[in-house]
Design goal:
46% of the residues lie in helices and 20% in strands. Helix 2 packs parallel to helix 3. The chain has a single domain, classed as Response regulator (Rossmann fold, 3-Layer(aba) Sandwich). Helix 1 links the parallel strand 1 and strand 2. With 123 residues, it is an alpha/beta fold. The longest helix is centred in the first third of the chain and has 14 residues. The protein is built from five helices and five strands.
């Protein structure tokens, strides 16, 4: 399996990447610094099984990236999990309505990350 971690914070990408690698279910974990970078990685590196997407990033925010992913039929099977500090109920609902498969609030524990990832992947 392949995962893409999208966050403008290097330390948060490191935390999420380490958590995913520890699970032992991903062959590769790629990083992107914002939504534009994430879409480029999707085009250049092929499909990912899971994209973990922050909300607030420069150039293109996570919500806008989510909308672009869901607009492309070729990416319809990609699971997208928002991993963000954004906790306003209307924005959580907005992301789910736009096609987010799951939502994880920062800060989180390694156990919470693993539980959500396994749930979204049906493991």
């Amino acid at each position: 399996m392949k995962a893409l971690v999208v966050d403008d914070s290097q330390s948060m990408r490191n935390i999420v990447k380490a958590g995913l690698q520890k699970m032992g279910i991903f062959d590769s974990v790629t990083e992107a610094v914002n939504g534009v970078d994430a879409l480029e990685k999707l085009k250049s590196e092929g499909l990912f099984d899971l994209i973990l997407l922050d909300w607030y990033m420069p150039e293109m925010e996570g919500y806008d990236c989510l909308v672009k992913i869901r607009e492309n039929p070729a990416w319809s099977d990609v699971k997208v999990m928002m991993v963000t500090t954004e906790n306003q109920q209307e924005n959580v609902i907005k992301a789910v309505m736009a096609g987010a498969n799951e939502y994880l609030m920062k800060p989180f524990t390694a156990e919470m990350l693993e539980e959500k990832v396994k749930m979204v992947l049906g493991l």
